[in-house]
Amino acid sequence: MLESKTHIPFGMSKEFGMSKELKAKYIGGHKAFPRQTHTQVLILPDRLELVKPSLIIPYNSITNIENMDERKISALRIALLGIFGVFWKKKCLYTVVQYNDGLDEQTVVIDFGEQIDEIQPLIYQKMLEARHS
Q1: Which helix (H) or strand (E) holds 74?
Q2: Which residue from 26, 59, 63 is spatially nearest to 43, judged by alpha carbons?
Q3: pLDDT tens digit string along 33-46?
Q4: pTM of the predicted model as reported, rounded to 2 decimal places
């Protein structure tokens, strides 16, 4: 795993050759990890990794990636976070990654902050490359 010697503010990233490390917020969605948490996300050549919760998502297992704003995430928030999700308000775009973990279909929602315009297309491109290789 890549170790960072300096503090990376939320929504910022560090480049490591073919890899990228950034701070983000895991919103929820994975069946085994329901709680929100601040995390580090590693964009690696063959996979996406979240440090907390510990998730490894190979690009070839991603079935869909999209963004959702406040209106689109409301129904998903209720499904993922229960009734308390109704009261959670935040105006931003979230990246929603759907993938198969080998046992089940999973959905994770990540807040990349201001870097969504850079990171989401990067993950999408890596997903397409994995499908065609």
Answers
A1: helix 70-81
A2: 59
A3: 999 999 999 999 99
A4: 0.76
